[in-house]
Amino acid sequence: MEKTSVAEREEKDMMYVWLIVGFVLLIKGADFFVEGSSSVAKLLKIPSVIIGLTIVAMGTSAPEAAVSITAGLAGNNDIAISNIIGSNIFNLLVVVGVCAVMKGVTTDKDILKRDMPVNIGISALLLLFLIDLKITRIEGVILFILFVVYMIIVVGEGMKNRTTETEEVKVLSPALSIVFIVAGLAAVVFGGDLVVDNASKIAENFGLSQNLIGLTIVAVGTSLPELVTSIVATRKGESGLALGNAVGSCVFNILFILGMSGTLSPMAATGESFVDICVLTVVTIMMLIFGKTKGMTSRIEGAICVLAYAGYMVYAVMR
Fold it and tell me: How far apart (Å, rounded) are the C-alpha atoms in residues 128 and 77?
C-alpha cells in the first residue's frame, strides 16, 4: 500500500518535470525554428513574412493537424472542427494580442491586402458550410483546392518580390538553416505534446472535468507553438514573421486541415461549433480593423484582444 502511494507520488512529480521539459522544448525549438526560417528568407532574398505564411505557419500548425486529422479518421469529427475553430480564435486574439502588448505588431501591407481578407473570406465560407452542421466530402475538397491556390499565389508573389539588396547580412548556411528548421520544428511539436499530455493529467488529478480540459488545455496546448514562435519572432524584431505565422496558421488550419479531414471523412458539427465559427468570423473582421488603424495593432488593441479571449473562454466554460 505504501509502495503504491510512493509510486503514485513519483508519477505525479514526473508530470510536473515533463511539463517543464515540454515548455523548454517549445521555447528553444521555436527559437531555432525562427532563426532557421529567417535565414532561409534572407538566403532566398524573399520577405520573412512569406516564410511566416508558409513554412512557419504550416510547421507550428502540426499539432492541430495531428489532432484534427486523427480525430476525423476516428470519427470524432466534432473534436476536429472545434479544435480548429478554437485554435484560430486563440491565434488571432492571444498570439497577435500578446505580441502586440509586447511592442505593437506592424501590419505588413501584403497581409493587410491579401491574407487578412482571405482569412475573413474562408471563415465566412466555413460558416456557410456549417449551416447544416456538417462538412461534406465535396466541401472538404473545395477547401483543399483553395489551399493549393492560396499557396501558389503566396509563394509566387513572394518569389516575384525577391529583394535585390546587396548588403551583407549574417545568415546560416543552407544546410544549417534546414537543420535549425527541422530540429526546431521537432522540438516544438514534441514539446507541445508533452505540455498537453501532462497538463491534462495534472488537471485530472485536481478533479477538473474532461470537458473543461478539452476547452482549455487541448485547444490552447495545440496552439502553443504559434504563440511561442510568434513571441520569439517579435523579440527578434521579426514582427512580419510573427503576424504572418498567426494569420497563415489560421488559413492553413481551415483550408488544409479541415479540407483534408473533410475529404477523408464527412464531418458532423454541433450547434456550439456553429456559434464558435460565428465568433471566429467576427474576430477576423476585428483583427483587420485593428491592423488598418495606423498600420499596426497597438498595445491597447492587443490588450483588448487578450481580454476578449478571456471573455470567450468564460462563455465557453459556462455553456
Answer: 18
Task: Report the mean per-residue pLDDT for the chain.
Answer: 83
pLDDT > 70: what percent of the chain? 87
Neighbour count for residue 182 (Cβ, 10 Å): 14
Placement of cell 504559434 in the chain: 226
The H or E element containing residue 297 is: strand 296-297
**Phi, psi of 108, rounded to the nearest 5 degrees:** -65, 140
Q: What residues are paired with 297 via a beta bridge? A: 105
Compute the distance between CA of residue 306 and CA of residue 162 in angstroms, rounded to an integer.
35
| Residue 238 burial (CB count, 10 A) | 24
Residue whose cell numbers read 505557419: 57
Predicted confidence band at 166 (pLDDT cuts at 50, 70, 90)?
Answer: very low
SS3 assignment, position 1: coil
CA separation (Å) from 296 to 105, 119, 307, 308? 5, 17, 19, 18
Mean pLDDT, residues 161-173 taken together:
58
Report pLDDT for 94. Answer: 95
Dist CA 63 CA 54 (whole Å) = 16
Question: pLDDT class for 220, splitting at 50, 70, 90?
Answer: confident
| Residues whose CB is less than 8 angstroms from the CB of residue 134 and which lie 6 or more positions away in sequence, other chains included | 266, 267, 268, 269
The alpha carbon of 15 is separated from its chain's Cα centroid by a whole number of angstroms, namely 25
